[in-house]
Structures are given as C-alpha cells and as structure tokens.
Amino acid sequence: IRQGMSEVVFCEGKTEQQVLKIFERMIEKGEVNIIGTRASKELYEYLKENLKGDIDYYEAARIVCAKRVEVKKNPKGHVAVVSAGTADLKVAEEAAIILEILGNNVKRVYDVGVAGIHRLFSHLDEIQSANVIVAVAGMEGALASVVAGLVSKPVIAVPTSVGYGANFKGLSALLTMLNSCANGVAVVNIDNGFGAAVVAHMINSLANGNL
Amino acid sequence: IRQGMSEVVFCEGKTEQQVLKIFERMIEKGEVNIIGTRASKELYEYLKENLKGDIDYYEAARIVCAKRVEVKKNPKGHVAVVSAGTADLKVAEEAAIILEILGNNVKRVYDVGVAGIHRLFSHLDEIQSANVIVAVAGMEGALASVVAGLVSKPVIAVPTSVGYGANFKGLSALLTMLNSCANGVAVVNIDNGFGAAVVAHMINSLANGNL
Amino acid sequence: IRQGMSEVVFCEGKTEQQVLKIFERMIEKGEVNIIGTRASKELYEYLKENLKGDIDYYEAARIVCAKRVEVKKNPKGHVAVVSAGTADLKVAEEAAIILEILGNNVKRVYDVGVAGIHRLFSHLDEIQSANVIVAVAGMEGALASVVAGLVSKPVIAVPTSVGYGANFKGLSALLTMLNSCANGVAVVNIDNGFGAAVVAHMINSLANGNL
Amino acid sequence: IRQGMSEVVFCEGKTEQQVLKIFERMIEKGEVNIIGTRASKELYEYLKENLKGDIDYYEAARIVCAKRVEVKKNPKGHVAVVSAGTADLKVAEEAAIILEILGNNVKRVYDVGVAGIHRLFSHLDEIQSANVIVAVAGMEGALASVVAGLVSKPVIAVPTSVGYGANFKGLSALLTMLNSCANGVAVVNIDNGFGAAVVAHMINSLANGNL
Amino acid sequence: IRQGMSEVVFCEGKTEQQVLKIFERMIEKGEVNIIGTRASKELYEYLKENLKGDIDYYEAARIVCAKRVEVKKNPKGHVAVVSAGTADLKVAEEAAIILEILGNNVKRVYDVGVAGIHRLFSHLDEIQSANVIVAVAGMEGALASVVAGLVSKPVIAVPTSVGYGANFKGLSALLTMLNSCANGVAVVNIDNGFGAAVVAHMINSLANGNL
Amino acid sequence: IRQGMSEVVFCEGKTEQQVLKIFERMIEKGEVNIIGTRASKELYEYLKENLKGDIDYYEAARIVCAKRVEVKKNPKGHVAVVSAGTADLKVAEEAAIILEILGNNVKRVYDVGVAGIHRLFSHLDEIQSANVIVAVAGMEGALASVVAGLVSKPVIAVPTSVGYGANFKGLSALLTMLNSCANGVAVVNIDNGFGAAVVAHMINSLANGNL
Amino acid sequence: IRQGMSEVVFCEGKTEQQVLKIFERMIEKGEVNIIGTRASKELYEYLKENLKGDIDYYEAARIVCAKRVEVKKNPKGHVAVVSAGTADLKVAEEAAIILEILGNNVKRVYDVGVAGIHRLFSHLDEIQSANVIVAVAGMEGALASVVAGLVSKPVIAVPTSVGYGANFKGLSALLTMLNSCANGVAVVNIDNGFGAAVVAHMINSLANGNL
Amino acid sequence: IRQGMSEVVFCEGKTEQQVLKIFERMIEKGEVNIIGTRASKELYEYLKENLKGDIDYYEAARIVCAKRVEVKKNPKGHVAVVSAGTADLKVAEEAAIILEILGNNVKRVYDVGVAGIHRLFSHLDEIQSANVIVAVAGMEGALASVVAGLVSKPVIAVPTSVGYGANFKGLSALLTMLNSCANGVAVVNIDNGFGAAVVAHMINSLANGNL
Ligand SMILES: Nc1ncnc2c1ncn2[C@@H]1O[C@H](COP(=O)(O)O)[C@@H](O)[C@H]1O
Ligand SMILES: Nc1ncnc2c1ncn2[C@@H]1O[C@H](COP(=O)(O)O)[C@@H](O)[C@H]1O
Ligand SMILES: Nc1ncnc2c1ncn2[C@@H]1O[C@H](COP(=O)(O)O)[C@@H](O)[C@H]1O
Ligand SMILES: Nc1ncnc2c1ncn2[C@@H]1O[C@H](COP(=O)(O)O)[C@@H](O)[C@H]1O
Ligand SMILES: [Mg+2]
Ligand SMILES: [Mg+2]
Ligand SMILES: [Mg+2]
Ligand SMILES: [Mg+2]
Ligand SMILES: [Mg+2]
Ligand SMILES: [Mg+2]
Ligand SMILES: [Mg+2]
Ligand SMILES: [Mg+2]
Question: CB-based contacts of H11: which residues, under 8 Å, 6+ apart?
Fold first, then answer.
C-alpha cells in the first residue's frame, strides 16, 4: 500500500491532532485515498469536523477512510474472510473493510470456530470458491488448519489476542498457525487484520491480472 | 497406578541394571504387574534374559510388562485413542497399550490429522461411542479441539514433540490444547501418553462402576 | 456444554448490551439454560432488569444463570473442589457453581494449600470418596500433586494466576501441574474453573451412567 | 499439495524402510508424483535401489522426487527465491526445487543479505518482475522487510535457524518477519522452505489462471 | 556520566517531591549539570517552580536539565541519530538531546525505516560522515543492520517497544539487532535512548581527543 | 569456599589435562583441600595416576577430592538432604558429599516425592530436627514446599533438570520453588547441589558457632 | 512464620473488609502478632479505626503490624540488608521491617549498586560482620554476586522488578542471582522482601541458638 | 570488516572444502587479508595444505588468518580485553586476536570475575587507561557492570554461553549486560567475541584518527 496508491496510517497511540496533520499532509501530496486503522469513534468525529472533504467510518473495523479517487476493482472472484469467535470480529472486520476499500469482493463467514465445526461445513462453498482466504482466530487458532485442509487456495492466517492464561496474548494461536500441518498457510502478526488484507489483496489482484 | 495395583517404571535415563533391580525389588514386594515405559528393545532383551518369569514387549509403544496377575476388566464401552500424524504413533501406542494392560477395550483411530479431516469423519462412530477419548497430536495440535467439538465425552489431550522450528518441542501443541475453545478437554504433559492413559483408565473404570 | 443442553457465554470483554442480546437470542432458539461466566454484579443487575424471566447471580463465582428447565441430576457420589489459598477462591467457586448448576453434588474443601498440609489431611475423606476432584491452586500449584498422590480418582487441575514475580501470571502453577509426578492428573488453562467443571461433570455423569 | 495432485513426505525422523513403504503405498493408490523433503543422500540411494521406476535427487535441497506424470505448467511470469547468507541456501533450494517440480519458473537471487545491500539492488529487476517472492533469511532476517519495501507483490518470508546465541534457533528471524513494517509479507515456520513454496505456487497459479 | 561530570536521574516512577529532593541534594554536592530523563511536562513545571535557578525542558525527549556549568564540546564531526518510524521519535529524541547537552553535534535523520528505504539513501551522506551512529527502531528493527551495512563507523542500536503482538514489547527489535549480520553493531536496552547517547558521546569524545 | 579454605573446580567441559593443571597449581599455592564437581570416573582415574598424593572419588556424586588438611567439624546437629525421585539422586549426593567434606553431619532422606507422601512423613523426625534442610526435586518440584510447610528451619531448594516436555529442563521445578507459599524457602540454580551445600554449610556453621 | 508465632497476611488484592476480618479472626484464635504486607496507607487507616487495640504502620515498607506480645530477640550479631538503587528501597524495607518485628538487629546499607562500587566498599565492615546478608537489587542484579564475593556468610538475594525493557519485570535480576558465580547465594522470588526476611531470621536465630 | 579491508568467514557449519573455496575466491578477488573464525585445528591443517601461501592459526581463539598485506596500525593507546572465568577464555581470545590482526594493541586481563573482585582491582590501571574495553563474561555476567562502573570509556560487553540451568545458554548474562545500571555499556550477541572486536577496533581507530 504505502508503496502503492493508498496510504495507511496506524492511528493507535497517536493524538487526534497528529492523525489530522498526517492526513492533511498526505492529501496535499496528492495521495489518492487515505485509510486510518485502529481508529476510535472519537477520532473519526474529530477528523470529520476538521478535515476538508468526506470521511467514512467503519465502526466494527475501527477504520476511517478519506476516499478521494476510485480504486481499480478486482471483479473476478472474491476473498473469503473466515473467523472463529465473536471476539475475533474486530480483527476480521479490519481485514474485510480494507479488502473492500481496495476494490475486492469479500464474503464474510463468521463465527465458524472448530468447537461448532458443522457451521464451517455449511459455508464450504463460499470458502472453496474464493481466490484466497483470510482466516482469523484466537484461543487455540485451529481454524486456519481446518480451512486450509479443505481448500486448495492460499490461506492467510491471522492469530488474534483473544483468550486468557496460557494463551499468552495470542502466542498460542500464532504458534498453531505457524505449525499448521495443512498446506498453503502463511501467517501475519497477532491481530494484524490489515496486513493479511494487503497480502490477500495482492493475491486477488494477481488472479485478476491486476498486479 | 503407583498408588494402585500396578507399578510403572520410567526407563529412559536408567541403566539396564538399574531397571532390572527395580523390577526385582517390586516383584519381591509382591507388586502385581510391573510396567516399564520408554523401554528400548535392548532393555527388553536384557530383562527377558535376567528376570525370573515372563516379560512382554510392545515395540511401537516402547513398553515392557511383567504381568503376574490378572487385572480387573472394564467390559462396558471402550476408550478411543485418536492420533494425528504417523510421527505421533509412538505416543499414541504408549497410551493404547497402557490402557489395554489395565484392562480397557481400546479403539485406535490413527492418522486422522486435520489436514485430511474427512478421514476423521469416517471414524466418527468409534469416537463418539467411546466413554473417553485420548487425542494425540503434534505440530499445531488442532485435533483435540476438533474431536472435542464432535463428542460429549471427556477428551484427554496429549501434545507431542513432533514438529520443528516454531513448534518449540511440543510447546505449540501444548498451548493449542490448553486454549481449546471446545468443551471437555483436559491436557497432560508433552509426549505423556502414559499419563493420559491413566486418567482415561480411571474415567472408563468409573463408567464401568470399577473405581 | 455448547454441544449439550446448556449454553455458556464468556462475558468478560463484552458490553452489557451484547451479553443481553446473546441471552435473548439463545432463549428464543429454545436453549434450556443459559450460563454467563466472568460476569460482574453490574452485568447481573442489568440483565435482571432487561431480560424476561428469572436470573440468578453467584457473586463469588462471578456467574449469572438463566435457568429455564431442570437438568438431569448426578445423584451418585460427589465432586470434590479443593483449593489452596483464599485468592484462588473465585476460580474454585466458578468450578463449584458450574458443577452444581449442571446437577452434581459438590463438596468444597478450601484453603488447604501445602503450607498447612494438616488442613488437607483433616478433609481426606471428602476428597478420597469423590468420583473426581477439581484441584485449584496458584503460586507454586503443588496442591494438585499432593492430592493426586492421596487418591485413586482423576484429578482435574486448575492453575490460577494468583502470585507475583516468577509466577508469570500462572505459568508456574501450570507447569507444576503438567509435570506432576503423581498419577491421574489432567490440566486445564490458567484460571479456567469453568473448563475443569465441564470435564469433571462429564466424568461424574459417566460414573452415574448419565452420559 | 496433499489435497492436490502430488503427495509430499517429510522424511526426517523416518527410517529408510518407512519412507520406502509410504512411497510404494502412494504409487499404488495412483498418486501422480511423490516428493520427499529432508531426504539424505543415503535415503535417496536406498529408494533408488528398492523402488520401482525412476527417482531424482536434488542434493542441495535434500529432496527426492518420484515423478510419474507431467504437472500443469505456470508459463506466465516467475517466482523469485531470494536468500541472505550461504548457510540459508538449503532452505532456499528446498523452496526453489519444490516450485520447479510443481511447474513454476524460478529465478534464484542468492547471497543478497542486508550486510551487502548493493548485491540486492543489482538484482532488483528479477525480484520486482516476479509474481511472488520467497524471501529466505536467518540471523536477524531483515531481508524480507527490505525486499517487501521494494516490490508490490506478495512476499512469503521464511525465517531460518541459521545463527547462534540470541538467535534462539530462528526465533529472531521469525519475529523480525512477523513484525515487518513493510506491506505484503506473510510468514511460514522456521526452515519451512517447502511450505513457502506451496503458498507461492498457489499464488503463481492464480496469476496464471491455473487454480 | 554518573561517574563523570553530569548526574542523570531516571524520573519515571518517582514522585515530584522525590525528584526535587534528588536534584537539590546533587546541586548542593556541587554536581555540575543535572539531567532528568522520562520526565513529564508536569514534573518539569513542578521543578521550575520549586528548584533554585534555571531548568530547561525538551518535550519530545521528555528530558529536564538543570544546567549549571558549560560542558566540554566535541567540535570535530557529528553523531547521526537515525530512526525508523514516527512512534520511535521519543526514544530518538532522548538520545539526540542527551548528546547535545553533553556537547556533541547531532544530525537527525528520522522516519527512514526500511519500508521506504529510498528515504534512507537520500540521507546517506549525513550518516556515512558521522563518527558514530545511533540507530533507533521498533517493529522488526531492521534499520540497524541496513545502516551498519552502509557505513564503516560503530552503530549503537536502540530497539524500541513500538509494535504489537509478536513484537513482545521490543523483544523482536532487540533480537534483530543482537543478531545483525552487518559488522559494527552494539546494542543497548529496549527504549534506552539515554544509554545509547552515553556510549556514542564517549566514542565521539575519543574521536575528538576529549576522553 | 573459593573465598574460604577449600577451592572447588567445576570439571564439566574441561579436559583432563586442564583439571590436572588447576589442581596442581592450587596445591602449590597451598590451598588446603581441593574439590572437583561434575567429575567423571575417567577423570578421577586420570588424576589418581598423575596427581601427587591421595585423591578420593564419590561416584554417585561425581566428586573428586584431594584432601590435604582436616576441616573444622560442625558437631552440633545435622543437615537433612531430602530428595524426590531416583533420578534426582546425583544432585542430592553432590550436596550431601560436599556437606560431609566440609565437616557436617548429613542425614539422607531419599525417594520421598509427593506422589508417595507417606514415605516423607515416616522420616519427619530426621527432617524436623535438622538445622537446615536441602530439598532436591525435579519434575514439578513440589517437595520443597511440602517440606518447608512441615519444619521451621531454612530450606535450601534445588530444582533438578529431571523431567521432559513442559518441564523445560528444570524450569518447572525452579518456578515452583521460587513461588513456594510455604515460608523459609530459598532457591539455587537448577542441578546446583554444590551451591545448596555451601549455603547449608554456612547456616549449620552459624548454628554451631563456627562462622 | 505461618507455622510459628506470628501470622502474616498478604494484603495486595484483598479488600479492606477482607483484611480486617482476617486480622480479627486471627486475634480471636490467639495469634500473637499479626503482620500485613503490601498494605497501603488507606488500609492502615481503615484497620486503625476498626480493629481493637494498637496497630503500627511502616510506610516505606508497606507493612501494618498488630503487635500483641513480645517476640524472642536475637541479641547476638545482626542481619545486613543491602540494596542497589533507590527504586529497590521498598523491597529492602519490607525485608528490614519484617526482620526487626521478628526481633533481629538490622543494619541497612542502601544505594550501593555496582555502578558506584566505592560506596559498597565504604560499608564493608557492616556487611562482613553480619550473620547473614539480604541483598536486594533490580536492573541487572549484580549486587548479590559482588557482596557474596566479599563475605563468607550466606547471602539471601532478592531480585526486584525495577527496570524496563529487557529487564522483563525482574527476570533479568532473578537469572543473574540464580547464576551467581560467587558462593553462598540463595534466591527468593522477585520483590519478595518478606520471604528473604523469614529465611534470614531463621538463620540469625540459629546463630543465636534460638531455633 | 566485510565492508572494509579484511573479509571474515564464519567457519562453523561449513565443510573444509567450502571454506577452502571461499578463501580461494576471496584471494582471487584481491581481498587483502582473510580471517576465519570458529575454525578447528583440523580445518587449519586442511587449509595449510591446500591453500596457496601462508596461513596462521590461533588455537585458543579458534581463528585462521591468511595475511596478505599489512594493516594500518592503531599506535595510540590500547584495547583492554577483560574476562571473568576460564571457560570464557575462548570468546575473549576470539576478540583479542581479531583486535590484534586488525592492528590494535591489546591488554588481556583474564580471570577477574566478580567472585574474586580483588583480582580485578589489581589490574585497574590497564583497564582504566584503555580507549575501549571488551568485557567477556558468562554465568551471571556481572563483570561488565562492575568494569563500566570503574571506567569512563565505552565498554563492549560480550555475554558467553558458559553456565547451566537457569543460565539458558547465555540468556542470563545477556540480560544482565543489557540492563546494566552503569553507564557506557553496549552489548553484542552471546559468544560473539568477533563482533565486539570489530566495534572496539572502530572505536580505537577513531581515537587514533584512523577512521
Ligand atoms: N492495523 C495495522 N497493523 C499493522 N500495520 C499497519 C496497520 N495500519 C497501518 N499499518 C502500517 O503502518 C504504516 C503506517 O505507520 P505509521 O507511520 O506509524 O502511521 C503503514 O504504512 C501501514 O503499512
Ligand atoms: N470462564 C470460561 N473459561 C473458558 N471458556 C469459557 C468460559 N466461559 C465460557 N467459556 C466457553 O466459551 C464459549 C463461549 O464463548 P463466547 O462465544 O465468546 O461467549 C462457550 O462455549 C464456553 O465453552
Ligand atoms: N509480601 C509477601 N510476599 C510473599 N509472601 C507473603 C508476603 N506476605 C505474606 N506472605 C505469605 O502469604 C501467606 C498469606 O497469604 P494469604 O493467605 O493470601 O494472606 C502468609 O503465610 C505468608 O507466608
Ligand atoms: N565469530 C563470528 N561471530 C559473528 N559473526 C561473524 C563471526 N565470524 C564472522 N562473522 C561475520 O559473518 C560474515 C561471514 O559469514 P559467512 O558468509 O556465513 O561466512 C562476515 O562478514 C562476518 O561479519
Ligand atoms: Mg489446502
Ligand atoms: Mg465436546
Ligand atoms: Mg492418584
Ligand atoms: Mg511491498
Ligand atoms: Mg558497517
Ligand atoms: Mg517452614
Ligand atoms: Mg561469599
Ligand atoms: Mg563507566
């Protein structure tokens, strides 16, 4: 992205003033679209009031987006975003919204953790027909392996920090995903829905002849 | 066990002479049956030659057993021993043989790792009808969660040290199993097939009115 | 549970509105009884006001329960819940209350840590006569080993995060329990009183011919 | 792979007899091509003597391959395999050979670690024109970030266990790659050249309309 | 320093009263200049009001300084302080300000992380002509290696705690820097801009014939 | 010791020639008694042949000792050395022999691990009447807590590396002992029977008015 | 203690009401003196108002003490409490006050960290003449080794959580102390001034013929 | 170095043939002097026989050196290499020999660990008069802090993997050195005598006006 046509700002740990200034500087430099991740509703409202032009907010994903030009679409096929538990939702949505902003069709398959594996099987079609799958799971993170065992497309796995005790803030899910005995799994950092979306977007663009 | 009617010796790291002496002393003390785990074939041959009375060897399980009296059987139901990959076999067999020596019916369901989940589903009956399941898996250890999600019986999970890199000698599978989001999973030490068998034996005995 | 007749919600990290909505949806779906763990008193009061029908609160256990139908009892025998220090109480109570809601007789043996081992010995009867023991301990977690050395029933060990410094938020007790040299110990996640209760309930049900 | 048209055997820790048996069973089942990774020269010679039909050996990559049918080629574009130091070569070759066996054009750009960054820049063309890049590095693993900062294609990063001391057998490079501040990086397990190749093959196949 | 002509106080975790008392006691003892690191603006204002004589505040660096005498300058050459991301700024400024207070010429080269490596190359002159470089980076910390590969002067690397997930509060950058395959890198503690500045000051003083 | 009247050499990792030379040099310098720990039988035989004067070997403790003068005895009371399993014996003996060489009465209470706690209780007298107790245990290391709960004298705890899996080479027992909820426990390094003996010797000497 | 004549309550994490109730119950049971550690000033004031009889507060040590009877003194010799930095003071004071309450003479030697080792040497007499030394240090924790190298008495080392970054909340000082190459060092948990005091009190009592 | 006038080869893990080939290729490319670190005596003898021209071996340092041209000397001042125990010698010698090959005067101050701190003090002159100090220590690694507290020059600290148990292969010394509360310490990787030598050489060259 940074190296492409949108610029992305990691808002966590920055003041509202700092984020505003970064957005303004980028718009001046002629950046096409500017996305802010880990953005609170308060930040959004501050930007809306102070920034010239439109700005959108995706609450569940904690994303703000100042869209200035149209992006190139990836019309062929879709990216499936699969997630395990309700607490993993905000990471899954971070991935899904970034993917949509970048022009991809997204199919969400949420709450299909391995404890209720039948729910996963009832959505197999949407998953198997995707060009690439983003698999988001915390706790023991087994979802990525199960999904990868069922498809022949690349699976970008996102461990989340959801859990407690021997979860060690996501370490458990991270190790699970790195050790997947199913083929076709590559992993990004804990809670990094954004990073997974970028890789998945690149893959879907390649599949669409767009990269 | 130790506190019950069989005595179990952990042979790894002991010399043949030491193991022999321990076996002899126990037989003298009137111990009923003596089991040795982590026993090499060489150790078995040494014991066979030097110990009074019969001794059996279970090669895949690395177990020697000097059976002296009959054990109380658990005739009702069975224990399912489920394992993921071929490299997990020796831990699974350690559990299975201990269970059989202690008088339990065992159904082995091997090589049903999540990368080929259909193999697991084709053995669902044997797993769901068990009184208790021992689930053995290395790498990412997702098998325990998947199995526990499909049954309503206790699952005793055994992480194995099978894997490399970010597996950290079984830590990955251990954390996965401790963080299982499926209900009914309890965990023993890495590679501890014996320990899982003892717990499963106790549970099956309770189900048989034998404890 | 999830797979059985009660549904359990992990309330920590969810808003009051979210928990209410989940409870309502489950009641609609005809779920029999709905349990919420890690529930604050505030959450309970919010639910009491807004949910149709009765709801109970178990303060020490931090559990809310919307009971709708009677559960199948386990009349034979009991489950012993043993705990080490006063700070371990809330995890022990989480286990005990879940066990009682699921229909088990529970005997509590609290504050019997190994620093005052005579207290443990004065309750040996209640522990040895149980079908299964839940052993809850933080700090060094030695209680599980000591108990398992004294009984021939399965011990479900729950490490707690009680302690400081080299305790590493429960890691110390967790490792202690996984390495127990006494037989018959299986372990659940740090502070997971709920998980231990589910396994113990399954075992007691098997002993009662109820599973 | 497993789920596709080739079957892959992880040979490390298996006896020659076990590997032979697995190869024979797979050929019987009609598997098209069988690949063995982490195969010693001795194993290769044993298989050559005992297995019906041809078998190839790629020494630097430690791979044996019993090719039985032609694979579908990915004629458009190539995969770049980039590696840092000479000690990383065997992991890089594992990736490169797997990619070639699966029908991809591979461009090797070796020994371009960040300590001599000019060597990397003199091969920028081959890297930037690839559909996907496999970046292999041990020690501090900075190569993946540097490469990802220079291209707009997905980078599959493989940390290696090359290093000593605070390298902790590859942990250092693994964490570096997971924390990459450059976009488009996804990571596989330490030393897992094979796993990276499978993901890269899937991506290149999507770019070729082959998946 | 402590052993030299300035005394430095680590203010974090001390009350305003405690810091004041320490400053007063040192001034009495005839200490020349007193520096306080990790000082909030509130602390500065408290000291300004209550301490006899002047006191300066460097907000971005979180440093207070009660300058009482002139320091010996290092007129020849400069120290380059290089940093990766905006979030690393406060650590970089801690280093830069300490260096300036101690009498060194400092050139700041900020926001030159490896994701946008061209920015680094456009400042190569300032970096290569320095006597010593302080390289500050969080996330994966690759900057230190890249810089050391481009210069023949010592690089004092400061990992920062900037990042999340598998960053483990700076561990990732710390390991990266310790494992640098480029020559001439030595490392200080996570976020220890002050410590790096002291080492760099000593080196620059040696180059100036001042130590 | 080093600072006192005996000199101790850690023999592991040194060649026979190096150890010989160190012993000779010390004897020349007039050191009274020279002890070598972690000494193999081969090393002992080499020293016996090549060193002037007598040398003793304690096989179970892996200790060589070139005694040259009499040590001051601690006639009052004794030190109890308590150990858990047979595999802990060599560390326990290292402690016991060092204590005896330094002039202390030692009572050995071995194989009293918590899995068979009655064995511990049948030796309570010897333990409670000691001036100081050295408690040696691997696996989960619970012995130190149990012993400290039963006595009012200092307990010097020695974790051993006995165990496997989640034992992490003694880390489990080490953490257990550091987190002991019983009073009066202080801990030395994993497998450091020697270090515990020195501390216990100092304490017993103080109790005897000898230090 | 617990097993002796005073009872000690760990107040952190308990409500004022809970602590009051524990104190009252103990006084009823006829406990002689009751000590509360990790007690805030607020807690002290609450107890003072609500508890029958006198209660003292030691602010720097965060200790409350309801003294009811006189303790047996250790008149011969003293215990030295040595500490490194100002931030270690509260742990050092916890040790010193507990020692004094238990009847020991205490000599405090504070702020003698190894960065200013001359300060340590100017107090050598007080340290070398003690019966036992409590050495308290955070950061790198080198003080314990340096002190133990200078005395022939037991050193009870207390690592503190003072530090940041690669200190990992006291792990650094803990490991340093466990690995001390000086003889006579035994270690307690991070920040456990209380635990060190109990061991030191036992040793001093033995030296006084009081145990 | 790599970037300078000598090329350094890390020989560990390379075959004799591979090292020979690298040396030959470098000599052809006109590299001035070629150094091999971690070289066994066997490797040296192989190179001596097969390489054109002279080659030297430094056994204690495990270094081979094919010197072809004279290096620029650093005539002013010296580098002090200070080490703690005899087992640290090979790392200290690696540093010392590299420094000498690069043209520096080196003063070795060995076996001055903190357990016998008087030995350190008797060499204070050689240490305080150096331009830069390389401090090598394993176990608890306290030497670096003690030295840095006594001098006002930069200290390059090298933790070694000497130790056992809670040493965790050098982690203990590494953390100690990173957390040093003395000023002027910068750290290199565990056992990296070479890396420390390069940094120290750069600093000494700056002090000599040679860089
Ligand atoms: N949620 C996120 N997780 C990880 N990286 C992100 C995230 N959001 C933005 N980034 C990256 O962080 C960079 C911006 O960081 P900064 O300069 O601190 O705003 C962008 O180039 C993105 O690649
Ligand atoms: N205290 C608890 N600890 C661990 N797991 C729990 C706990 N309470 C509920 N659960 C599990 O978490 C699941 C619900 O998670 P959620 O969907 O996030 O509410 C249930 O199916 C339970 O199995
Ligand atoms: N500061 C402290 N650090 C460690 N242990 C303590 C401390 N204060 C009290 N204790 C121990 O904790 C026990 C009381 O714990 P509790 O029952 O939770 O109040 C006492 O028996 C003491 O041995
Ligand atoms: N003992 C050593 N420790 C760390 N790095 C070294 C050592 N010896 C050589 N090196 C570095 O390793 C590089 C050579 O690595 P290689 O290409 O694997 O031979 C050289 O440029 C040196 O900077
Ligand atoms: Mg797949
Ligand atoms: Mg289930
Ligand atoms: Mg038992
Ligand atoms: Mg890129
Ligand atoms: Mg350089
Ligand atoms: Mg006691
Ligand atoms: Mg001493
Ligand atoms: Mg200094």
Answer: H19, H36, H37, H38, H39, H40, H43, H64
Residues contacting G7, CB < 8 A, separation 6+: G1, G26, G31, G33, G34, G35
Asked if A141 is an interface residue toward chain B (Cβ–Cβ < 8 A), one would say yes
Q: Please compute the mean of the pLDDT values over residues F131-151 and round it to a whole number.
A: 96
Residues with CB under 5 A from ligand 9 (ion): E 148, 184; H 3
ipTM value? 0.95
* pLDDT over 90 at E54, yes or no: yes
| Nearest to D135, CA basis, from D208, D193, D178 | D193
Per-residue pLDDT for H2 more than 90?
A: no
Q: Is E40 exposed, middle or buried (0-12, 13-18, 19+ CB in 10 A)?
A: middle
pLDDT band of residue B139 (cuts 50, 70, 90) is very high
> What pLDDT is recorded for position D68?
87
DSSP lists the bridge partners of residue F34 as: F7, F66
**Can you tell me the distance from the alpha carbon of H113 to that of A116, in angstroms, rounded to the nearest whole number?**
60
- Compute the distance between CA of residue F139 and CA of residue C175 in angstroms, rounded to an integer: 9
**What pTM does this model have?**
0.95
Chains near B (3 or more Cβ pairs under 8 Å): A, C, D, F
b vs e for A157-181, b when ≥16 Cβ sit within 10 Å of the residue's Cβ?
bbbbbbbbbbbbbbbbbbbbbbbbb
pLDDT computed for residue A29 by the predictor: 84
Please give the average per-residue pLDDT across F153-167, as a whole number. Answer: 97
Could you say which ligand is closest to the alpha carbon of residue F151? 10
Over pLDDT 90: what percentage of chain F? Answer: 86
Residue G165 DSSP class: G
Where b means 16+ CB within 10 Å and e means fewer, D55-75 reads bebbeebbbbbbbeeebeebe
Q: Nearest Cβ partner of G184 from F132, F184, F198?
A: F198
Residues of chain C under the 50 pLDDT cut: 1-4
Asked if residues D134 and D82 have their Cβ atoms less than 8 Å apart, the reply is yes
Distance, in Å, from the CA atom of H159 to the CA atom of D165, rounded to the nearest integer, reads: 9
What is the phi/psi pair of residue E100, to 5°? -65, -45
Question: What region, left, alpha or beta, does residue B76 occupy, with left being phi > 0 and alpha being psi -120 to 50 degrees?
Answer: beta
- Measured from the alpha carbon of residue C166, the closest ligand is 3
**Closest among E3, E104, E9 to E66, alpha carbons compared:** E9
Q: Which residues contact D87 (CB under 8 A, 6 or more apart)?
A: D138, D160, D162, H13, H14
Q: What is the mean pLDDT of residues H184-192?
A: 98
Q: Is the pLDDT of residue A58 over 50?
A: yes
Amino acid at the residue D2: R
Q: CB count, 10 Å around CB of A53?
A: 9
Q: Render pLDDT for H97-122 as a digit per residue (tens, 0 to 9).
A: 999 999 999 999 999 999 888 999 99
DSSP one-letter code for D168: G
The residues in F 178-197 lying below 8 A from H, measured between CB atoms, are 189-192
Instruction: Find the angle CA(F193)-CA(F197)-CA(F200) to the nearest 5 degrees.
Output: 140
pLDDT interval class at H191 (50, 70, 90): very high
Q: Could you tell me if E178 and H168 are in contact, meaning their C-beta atoms sit under 8 angstroms apart?
A: no
Measure CB to CB from residue E179 to each of D117, D149, D163 and give the nearest one. Answer: D163
Instruction: Give Cα D120 to chain centroid, integer Å.
Output: 19
Torsion over CA: F73, F75, F77, F81 (sign): positive
| 8 A C-beta contact, residue F135 and residue F82 | yes
pLDDT in tens, E16-48: 999 999 999 998 888 679 999 999 999 999 999
